[in-house]
Design a protein that fits this description.
5 helices; two-stranded antiparallel sheet; single chain; 2 domains; 108 residues; mainly alpha; 4% strand; Trp Operon Repressor, Chain A
Amino acid sequence: EISVGDYILTGGEPAAVCIIDAVARLLDGVIKKDSLSQESFDNYLIEAPQYTRPAVWRKLKVPSILLSGNHKEIDKWKKEKAIEITKKRRPDLAEKYFKNNKVGGNYG
C-alpha cells in the first residue's frame, strides 16, 4: 500500500502524478545531482523562504540580510529560518533534526 498523505483528492490521477514525480526525479538525468543534494527534508529541515526581485513586492520586503551579499550570514539566516519553520510546521522533523545533530534541550 502506498499513501501520498491524509487528504482528499478529486480522483486517483493526482495521487498517481505525485508518485510518478517522486520516483522519476530520482532517475539519473531527470534532475541535476547538485539539486538533489539540497533537498527539503534532506537534513530533516523544511527549506527557508525563497525570495526574488524586486526587493519590495506588494509591501513585502526581502530581508536585508539576503541583499547584503554576505554569504556566511545568508547561510546562517537560512538555517535559522529553516529551523524556525520546521519547529512550527513539523515538530516531528525538528525532533529528528535535533537528535541527528546532537542538539539538546527543548528543540534547540
